[in-house]
Design a protein that fits this description.
This protein is α/β, with parallel strands linked by helices. About 45% of the residues lie in helices and about 15% in strands. Helix 6 links the parallel strand 5 and strand 6. Helix 3 packs parallel to helix 5 and helix 5 runs parallel beside helix 6. The longest helix is centred in the middle third of the chain and has 20 residues. The radius of gyration is 17 Å and the shape is globular. The N and C termini lie far apart (about 35 Å).
Length: about 240
């Protein structure tokens, strides 16, 4: 896949991996659109990268997903890359019952439902382009789960499965389907839970993920496993019962 002269939509693009990807893609000469729920974070991103286009969007809501699609379809007719990056991560203790599951944001809506729906919206547009791509950001924890974050891990495992399926469906089209599999990354994904646990290692910088992603895209490496995620992916295949 060429990594320049694309028109790219990145969900969750104002911070973390999403913003690092936006920076990397802009540097390579792409037109980049980012969306996110927090207007202040989008404004911060725009101040750092004036070339990008921004849109406030709560991807958990059907109407806002549809509005995002309609806006992009109208204003960015050359859209040829969708990056499903937006996600959240929560510790959920099922021993505490339903309250632990429902007291915070819905990981299934953000991490799984939204990228599936956006893919369904955008694939007909992407099919019109000579070369196009869907890039799904999953996680090493989709291969070997961490018990304290069961729903997050399940959504990322599902994203891996979804990526495999639509890659096969689209194999004879102009759309390439990539899966980026990061290890632990130093972002605000877990809302400070690592600090609460006293975890010293916060993970690799988002810029390392972006660099590895662009390198993998250029090589048409459809599963881009980064750093320790390579070991997790292989470990899942040799020891499928393993749980952290």
């Amino acid at each position: 896949m060429k990594i320049n002269d694309n028109t790219i939509l990145i969900t969750g693009g104002a911070t973390g991996i999403g913003f690092a990807l936006a920076e990397a893609f802009v540097k390579e000469g792409n037109e980049v659109i980012i969306c996110g729920r927090r207007e202040n974070k989008l404004e911060e991103a725009k101040s750092k990268l004036p070339q990008i286009h921004t849109r406030v969007c709560d991807l958990t809501k059907d109407k806002e997903r549809e509005a995002l699609y309609n806006w992009v379809k109208t204003d960015f007719k050359d859209i040829n890359v969708l990056v499903n990056n937006a996600g959240i991560q929560r510790m959920v203790d099922f021993k505490k019952g339903i309250s632990s599951l429902t007291e915070g944001e819905n990981e299934i809506d953000i991490n799984l439902t939204a990228p599936i729906h956006l893919s369904a919206y955008f694939i007909p547009l992407l099919l019109k382009q000579k070369e196009s791509a869907i890039i799904n950001v999953s996680s090493g924890l989709g291969f070997i789960p961490m018990a304290i974050m069961p729903v997050y891990c399940a959504t990322k495992a599902a994203m891996h499965s979804f990526s495999l399926s639509i890659r096969h469906q689209l194999r004879d089209t102009s759309i390439k389907v990539f899966e980026v599999i990061p290890p632990m990354v130093d972002t605000e994904l877990d809302k400070g839970a690592r600090d609460e646990r006293g975890q010293v290692d916060k993970g690799i910088p988002p810029a390392e993920v972006a660099k590895a992603t662009l390198k993998g895209l250029e090589k048409n490496e459809y599963e881009i496993a980064i750093g320790m995620a390579q070991n997790l992916r292989m470990g899942a295949r040799t020891n499928p019962e393993q749980v952290c």
